[in-house]
Amino acid sequence: MTKVHVTTSINGDETEFLCEPHDTLLDVLRNDLSLTGTKEGCGSGDCGACSVTLNGRLVCSCLVLGVEAEGAEVGTIEGVGEADNLNVIQEKFLEHAALQCGICTPGLIVSTQALLAENPSPTEEEARYYLAGNLCRCTGYDKIIRAVMDSAETMRGEG
Amino acid sequence: MSEAKKFNFIGQRTIRPDGHDKVTGKANYAADLALPGMIWGKILRSPHAHAKILKLDTSKAEAMLGVMSVATFDDLPSVSNEAIQSGEGAIDSLDLGRNVLARDKVLYHGHAIAAIAAKTEAIAEKALELIDVEYEVLTPVLDLHEAMKADAPLLHEDMFTQGYPEQPEKPSNIAARHELKMGDVEAGFAEADVIVERDFVTPTVHQGYIEPHACTVSYNTEGQSMVWCSTQGHFDVRASTAKLLAMPLGNLKVIASEIGGGFGGKTTVYLEPIALILSRKSGRPVKMMMDRDEVFRASGPASAARLTVKVGGKKDGTITAMQTSIAYEAGAFKGSPAMIGGMTAFTPYNCANVYCETFDVVVNKPKVAAYRAPGAPQAEFGAEMAVSELAEKLGIDPVDLRLQNAAKEGTQTVYGPKLKAVGLVECLEAAKNSPHYKTELKEGEGRGIASGFWFNIGGQSSVTINMNPDGTGTIVEGSPDIGGSRASMQMMAAEELGIPLNDLKPIIGDTESIPYNQSTGGSRTTFATGMAVIEAAQDVVQQLKERAASLWNVTPDQVEWRDGSAINTAGEGQMTCAEICAKCEKTGGQISGTGNVNARGAGPSFAVHVCDTKVDMETGKVDVIRYTAIQDAGKAIHPSYVEGQFQGGAAQGIGWALNEEYVYNDDGVMENAGFLDYRIPLASDLPMIDTIIVEVPNNFHPYGVRGVGESGIIPPLAAVGYAVGDAIGANVSELPCSPPRVLKLIQEKG
Amino acid sequence: MLSAACVEVDPRKRLDVSMAMVFFSGELQRFTGEEKTSVVALNYRELLGELHNKYPDLKNSEITEMAIAIDGEIVHEPLLELIPEAAELHFFHFIAGG
Fold it and tell me: Which chains touch C (3 or more CB pairs under 8 A)?
């Protein structure tokens, strides 16, 4: 198979790569671009560990082909916060101990960021349903939801 | 043992030291390592649940362009039947070898037969199709009752049931039988006014860690080979892998990556020995990862079980006899935690007459591995359901009945010793007084309450604390961090040293850099590794005092250590840790403390959970509407991570009770090998999980710590199961309480 | 009289030395035929020696691989353990966790 040349933007950086037509965006991010913050938990879009944004929309990168990134803007965990400064969501996750093993955390943070961009004042139920696509096996979600609600409050300036 | 004192750090909710890397995606897990020249390994897996391998020909695959090496069972140097250290107990290395790569028989659908390493994943997968295998398909054994019959097809012709006075004449699928007893259950039942006798069934479930098994390895003929993998015990990976490959231990370095969940399922090896063979034969580093399908089909789930439970009680609430017979599925090779089920089933009760009989039975399913308090959830599910039903029939509140018969200090256990100080009574009282329990149920809601017992273990841990000239230090420990334990290690060391928390950095050393550490599991880490950390920190403090003494020209016992500084009690002078460390070169060299423990006196952790459910009577769907998890932590070093263990265990137990099960077809093929249909709880399934930390100190730990990691998965099975039955007015006997099963109960009730 | 005062008495032969009570698990009872026995032993090695003398069939058992609870305290590696006075001892298998 001939590889396809793709030009895209990852976390605001112009990026080029070559990939097979059947490679997923997840494969490309992890294996070709060394952006291993996005994780593979299932490869079938059921666990959310591979969550990224594609043109601002939350997607499972294991269900997106690498070639679909052509001309698009991809947002990964590596683009959340700044080099020397965690953002509110990242800080609240740490403050609330909303992670134990941490494997689901990158996906959850990307998803939370997408949730709060869409809905700055989610109810607990809205947050739980929005994040239902991000599986966590360690925490039982309690502290994650508290971190999300606290993030929302802080970002609204009410915290 | 530290006196009850004001702690500076213990009990605080600090920010975990490894947190930054975890929330930025920088932390490196098993699949995150790439090495120059690396190639990819893939495994050929059996399409049959039970078959003889008549022919295995890998020549066409080896000839394919891009294929670099091939591995089969023949590449494992002759594996003898000795026990090797793996996980927390000894296992049979022949069984391990045959599970890693099938020898002459495949024993479950998905059983690994051969492996290929190639330049790309795609080439490796294509090459698998060129491996020629001829099978003689045999009838699979998929059910406990069927497996235990005298005329059942045999998985192993040389399996004779252990545990009877005379070894049976004929082989069977029953690997072992265990019996535990005390008192006289017959007499006990004769005394009882009410007897409850029920059969229960629990399914095969998976630990469900979100990170699949993965490793990157590099074989080095001349020197050290390297394995990078996610594991709960890198020393055990080294022991198992070196044994299977007949390598000296010193030739194999194992580095524990960050681990994306284990829960007991990552205490053994699947990929590592195969990857090393492929690396040796190709001369290249090899990366192998299981996909989610492989994780379900071919790693180590937890045993399905069938049990009968009988309990008897008098009108005054005294439980007079408790009895159970439980069969556990071991999967393809012997070694389910059957005996542990018998040891734990009735341990929350002070009952003089107890009898437990358990069976370890092989079936054509993947070999089971540990899962959070292995063996206990199945057994205690049955026991707690029966006790709750007994309470109902006696007209006694279920908490009160448990309180009246609660195990406490001095209670005789069925497995031998008497309990030391434990916190079950305190947990039950906390449950009784909880806002949850005091809230009355509404129409259509049901409530269940259950206790849980787990021993917890101690074992070997080794820690070094190296102090830098600027007074900061590194805590080098050897317990892979599966839940945030590094935070607690940092706190315990800072507490002893009296220096700022963030001056200490905990890291997990590899097998080359530190002495042996037993694996992370058994609820041992905060207890045993914590003890080693404290010992190492106290060693550092002693050395700091000696160095200060030498600078002041006094004796060490004239130096007091207070709040991170040395005080000269024989004259003038105070020096901070940093000041002493700055002069370390002049006073004898770098300061480095060690703690080396084989920790004993691990205190059991009792748990009590309360669950309220609501059931949709038209669909059988169950909602958990309120949940409280209460457990004895001895002393909570970091309350957030202790609560996290309670909540995580509760969520897994709720999944076990409501949704999770392996669904097999008649050919022994798992039909729901993915997260869509093997449904673990989602954020939208659960309410907030309230927690109450009880602290009855364990005096064997300087701060009173009890391990908490495991007990929390035990009560949910019966707390949820009984709540469902309570809501619909029927007896629940089979888990999970998935909608079809619940609907059937509703319809049968009429 | 002087010579009697200088005689060393083997501690195990002293009348006031306490016996340890050893309880056998169901599994070990197959080799001992008994639920429990009393033994005089200062340490684990002596304990095993005494038990093997009393129950020769124990050599076919896994007793040397087992953990031991000494007065309720579980010790997984008992090789160097001292046996306290009037101790209650239970043998059982290594407990694995998850």
Answer: B
